[in-house]
Amino acid sequence: MQFDREEYKRWMLQAEHTLASARRDLSEGDFNWACFKAQQAAEYALKGLLYGVGVSATGHSILRLLRSLEKLGLETGEELLTAARLLDRHYIPTRYVNAHAVGSPFEFYDEPTGREAIKAAEAILKFVREVASRLAGGPL
Question: Model-level pTM?
Fold first, then answer.
């Protein structure tokens, strides 16, 4: 399987930058943004891997992106699928006031939730790095 290192790197650099930003948001108490950016980091990483193998990656669901990798014969495992489900729940309600019956998004997020989201994103980025390295035939 041919692997497009440059396209993968573009996406992975953005994933890593976004995850670093999520960590800063967590430390500043912006927990809803930490959760959203953790979701985004995982999305960028998975899209980079899919584009790297020549598959068009659409949508924002981490779970669906992982399922796309499974269709290619890549084993993801239940731990990553659980992380994906957790992150998918942070895509809309972290940002949209009308996603909640009352209040504003920032009122519904706390430090433990932010830490959990970042941990889930870290697991997905680690998985992506390992798979990409294997597919590219060495470290990237």
Answer: 0.96
